[in-house]
Amino acid sequence: MATELIKGTAQDEFAKEVCTGLTKSPQKELPSKYLYDAVGSALFEAISVLPQYGVTRAEERILGRYATEIVSKLPAPVIVAELGSGAGKKTRVILEGLSRRQPISYYPIEISSAALAMCRRELSDINSISIVGFEREYLDGLLEVAARWEADQHLMVLFLGSTIGNFDGSAGVEFLSRLRAILREGDSLLLGTDLRKPVATLVAAYDDPLGVTAAFNRNLLVRINRELDADFDIEQFEHLVIFDDTNQNIEMHLRARQDQTVTVAKAGLGFRILRGETIWTETSHKYSQSELNSIARQTGFRWQGQWIDHEWAFADNLWIAC
Ligand code: AVI
User: Fold this and answer.
1) How far is the CA of 120 from the centre of ligand 1 (A)?
2) Stated pTM of the model
3) Going by CA atoms, what residue is nearest to atom 1 of ligand 1?
4) Could you give the CA distance from residue 162 to residue 134 in angstroms, rounded to a whole number?
């Protein structure tokens, strides 16, 4: 086993995006990717075992049951890049399946160094695996993987957990098109997608009674206070979940409990937020089957297989670049 980490720094970018998001009108927003500092990543791990949040368990069931079948559909030799690997728990079964056929090169790509470190710890015992982690934005990391891959190797990209649903509106389609442009014909994408389900189920999943998701959401302000020298009064913001029926999105917001002024020193920003006003922190889209077919077509992929969990409507989709 060999592991290596390619690091990146992103503090200036963070300050810039916070400034842009918090000065947006009429809706203030913050990019959801910043939810995942060390505390946020640990809280997300806790969310994934909550009884109300079925996404992670559903995908674990799918991969546990069908990893061998999924792997059998891939050409050899194959190298694996994973976007947003998290702690890499779900990936283990796929990598183990592949490592039975060949020594395996695995490239996790994460902007969270904490998650990357967890992933490397979790997977480094797999037989003849080489892990090179990239602390990068997804597509920047993928370009670096592409620069290392050899003519006879196929690339399999894992984008699990329905993280694609966290891209707003058409941004998900645009992202997949850009991803496709990095791939070569015949390369594959295993895409995890949470499917439509009753609103009450979704609201309970994103507003759990223990308040873990609320802590995950509010931690974003704690992070901005610490890293960008801001003075958010955390107690003055409450977790709010909204279901947007038209777009089939569950949204997380932070709602101000009173009028207040906030300063974010390292972003050179001071702003007012009024009682009841919200900062939109995350969108989580829920997919229909016809929508998935259409996205595959629009973004340059053809359908190769799909595995569904019926306990919690969730699909892992294997698409081939064409
Ligand atoms: C990572 N992502 C797919 C999660 C989701 O379900 O959209 C993030 C999350 N937010 C609140 N709970 C979980």
Assistant:
1) 22
2) 0.94
3) 163
4) 20
